[in-house]
Amino acid sequence: MYNYPDSTGHFGQFGGIYMAETLIPAVEELRMQYLRYRDDPEFKAEFAYELNHYVGRPSPIYHAKNWSDRLGGAQIYLKREDLNHTGAHKINNAIGQALLAKRMGKKRVIAETGAGMHGVATATVAARYGMECIVYMGAEDILRQSPNVYRMKLLGATVVPVESGSRTLKDACNEAIRDWVANVENTFYIFGTAAGPHPYPMMVRDFQSVIGNEAKVQMPEMIGRQPDAVIACVGGGSNAIGLFYPYIEEKNVQMIGVEAGGHGLNSGLHAAPLTSNSKVGVLHGNKVYLMQDENGQIIETHSISAGLDYPGVGPEHCWLKDTGRAQYVAITDDEAMQAFHNLCRFEGIIPALESSHALAYAAKIAPTMSADKVLLVNLSGRGDKDINTVARLSGIAL
Amino acid sequence: MSRIQARFEKLKQQNRRALIPFFTAGDPSPAFTVPLMHALVTAGADVIELGVPFSDPMADGPTIQRASERALKQGMSLHGVLDLVAEFRREDNATPVVLMGYGNPIEAMGWELFAGRCAKVGVDGVLTVDFPPEESHEAFLHLQRHGIDPIFLLAPTTSEARIQQVAKLARGYVYYVSLKGVTGAGNIDLSAIEQKLPQLRKHIKLPIGVGFGIRDAQTAKAVARLCDGVVVGSRIVQQIEDSNETTVLANVTQLVSELRAAIDQT
User: Fold this and answer.
1) Among A396, A397, A219, A240, which residue's Cα sits nearest to residue A326?
2) Which of A94, A185, A338, B130 is the most exposed place for a label (fewest CB within 10 A)?
3) Mean pLDDT, range B135-143, rounded to an integer
4) Residue A218, exposed/middle/buried by CB under 10 A (0-12, 13-18, 19+)?
5) What are the structural domain ranges in chain B?
6) CB atoms within 10 A of CB A372
7) Do B103 and A285 touch (CB under 8 A)?
8) What is the ipTM of this complex?
9) Chains A and B: how many Cβ contacts under 8 Å?
10) What is the pLDDT of residues B67-123, one digit of tens each?
11) What does pLDDT average to over chain B?
12) For residue A202, what pLDDT is reported?
């Protein structure tokens, strides 16, 4: 029976609470409060209500038949997290944490964001529950994802550009942690991915597990059985763990996480700590596989998708890799772009560039499989936010 | 007796408080680190906290972040820092040196190798900001085996139960972070420190140093009245940043001398 993390927040050697002393009592309080409410019927009922009536869950599963036929092999099904309110899976977790923040009496929420989807989700729940909201976003990402910056502002959030380091997601995390340490008494840090200090990896996984729990009911209804494989992109890994976790004991279902291969694993310009065999290290509160140089300095990553542009990965994915329960692969920028365009043209769905990595891997293996095989891909977000990036790469001025 | 313990016992006999300056190794350049360490001692430093630069200094404000960036740009690494301590020890075998930084560079080197090298080059204590006691078992084991003091942080938010836990593990001295925030932030709240210290003293028998937010001689003096040592970091790093290569040693010496004089008035 799979039962992780352990009581100290570890998945084998991974995870933990690697935080400065000032924040240790805050993560400890968060752990206690989460454990108190996770099985509380009233909390669960409110969470379920919000997911159904505010987010629009359950999200459907769609058979991408046109695309599958063109690929000529396994059938590709899509879990449509892109149809959620705010356009991605991030809202599931943001609501869960905001409901917890409300119960803990925290009136101010902060968040880090890469692609902006978690920032938008946090700004949304802050507006919904009447909380002050500050979102930290790398200056580089602000340029790449300008529509999302304006969305956050419309929702009443303050977006703080982060100019330090590589000016992307990891630096936004650093800055959010600095804010938290200074405002720990009135502030709840709504962390966006299944990483960070315990209990975040567990809590974010639990909130995102609605994805896999729904899929486990929906797939038998659609095809009479579970899929042969579930596939999701992995940056920090929250959409992937949300899909995978309910399938862990379903040993016949293969689990495949797709990292950002950037310009290719040999180029050094990627964001694929698992597939590039990075060493184990400590960053942002947890011990995980981490892209770093020989001196333990974190190296700058590259991905076409801001949401995957992160040097680490959640501790549970590290554990699932080491135990062999899940496999991890990388998809390059170019392969992701190809899948992006194909889904637009053949299915009429504009996918997020992050999710396009998972789509691209499905497209890669589908032709090698027979037509009775089924791949379930988590379409974790919609691509409206990415149209500027795609246009620029296609040489088109909008 | 360790250098840290010896130094605090001597200070106690003299009824003086320790002055513990911090700066980042390799800032403004590696060539200045050892001369700066000697200058600090000349100006009255009792313990030197030497910062090991890290790419993602989450607990530091902009001043020390910039120092880390300057040092890393100049190729500073944990190996390099240890070499610099070895060089410092050729002329100074008495002043305790504590390495302060984040865990990942040490993880990358391996705690066993790191602790052995610390002992060899003459490092006396190690403070890893993002390694709380809960995650320090391996670190503690290796440091202890080589006689290196693990220095722990306590914060205004630390509960009494945790203070007791830290009291069991800590060696050398305990570093009380005087405010909720990053290094170099805000203004120190003297009355809050005064209120917290009895709770710390109840369990901590080691000397207690106080740092974060000490920006001038007057504050240093006021803090010194309350504890056993005063840690000054961002203010010194700011002085380094505001100086050029010809003025940096003199400017830092002057600042630290002023702090020393103020602390000794208590």
Assistant:
1) A240
2) A185
3) 95
4) middle
5) 3-263
6) 9
7) no
8) 0.95
9) 124
10) 999 999 999 999 999 999 999 999 999 999 999 999 999 999 999 999 999 999 999
11) 96
12) 98
Can the peptide bond before residue A220 be classed as cis, meaning omega within 30 degrees of 0?
no
- What's the rounded mean pLDDT across residues A76-100? 98
Strands of the A10-11 sheet, one edge to the other: A10-11, A14-18, A285-289, A280-283
- The answer to whether the Cβ–Cβ distance between A284 and B186 falls below 8 Å is no
Residue numbers in B near A21 (CB within 8 A): 132, 152-155, 157-158, 177
* Residue B251, both tokens: 């400017």
CB B44 within 8 A of CB B258: no
Q: What is the pTM of this model?
A: 0.97
Segment A270-284, tens digit of pLDDT: 999 999 999 999 999
- The model's confidence at residue B40, banded by pLDDT at 50, 70 and 90, is very high
Q: Is the pLDDT of residue B15 over 90?
A: yes
Active site residue A112: yes
Q: What is the average pLDDT across B31-56?
A: 98
Select from B70, B72, B77, B130 the residue whose CB has the most chain A CBs within 10 Å, as the one to mutate to test that interface. Answer: B130
Minimum distance, in Å, between the CA of residue A155 and any CA atom of chain B:
28
CA-nearest residue to B181 within chain A is A182
A295 → closest Cβ in B108, B154, B162: B108
Q: By three-state DSSP, how is residue A77 classified?
A: strand
Q: Can you state the percent helix, strand and coil of chain A, rounding each to 5?
A: 50, 20, 30
DSSP state of A52: I
Chain B segment 161-180 residues within 8 A of A by beta carbon are: 162, 177, 180
Q: Which residues of chain A have a CB within 8 Å of the CB of B61?
A: 178
Q: Would an 8 Å CB–CB cutoff place B110 in contact with chain A? A: no
For the cut 80, the answer to whether the pLDDT of residue B185 exceeds it is: no
**pLDDT higher than threshold 90 for residue A208:** yes
User: pLDDT by residue (tens digit) across A359-376?
Assistant: 999 999 999 999 999 999
For the question of residue A46 being annotated catalytic, the response is no
Chain B environment of A185 (Cβ under 8 Å): 180
Exposed e or buried b for every residue in A345-365, given b needs 16+ CB within 10 A?
Answer: ebbebbbbbbbbbbbbbbbbb
Q: What is residue A228's predicted lDDT score, i.e. its pLDDT?
A: 98
Class of domain B3-263: alpha beta
Residue that the structure tokens 């139960």 belong to: B161
How far, in Å, are A13, A73, A335, B72, B242 from residue A69 at the CA level?
Answer: 43, 7, 19, 53, 66
Chain A partners of B62 at a C-beta cutoff of 8 Å?
A: 164
Which residue of chain A is at minimal alpha-carbon distance from B63?
A: A164
Alpha helix stretches (DSSP H) within chain A: 24-37, 41-50, 65-71, 90-103, 117-129, 139-144, 146-154, 169-182, 200-208, 210-223, 238-244, 315-323, 333-347, 353-365, 387-393
A50, A81, A112, A316: the catalytic one is: A112
- Token pair 């200045």 in the structure block, residue: B32
* 8 A C-beta contact, residue A121 and residue A88: yes
Q: Is the Cβ pair B162, A25 closer than 8 Å?
A: yes
Share of chain B above pLDDT 90, in %: 92
Torsional sign, CA B234, B237, B241, B242: positive
Residues 6-65, chain B, touching A (beta carbon < 8 A): 54-59, 61-62, 65
Q: Do A25 and B177 touch (CB under 8 A)?
A: no
User: CB–CB of A181 and B134 under 8 A?
Assistant: no
The alpha helices in B122-209, defined as continuous H runs, are 137-145, 160-169, 190-203
Closest by Cα among B65, B75, B62, B74 to B102: B65
Average pLDDT estimate for A171-198: 95
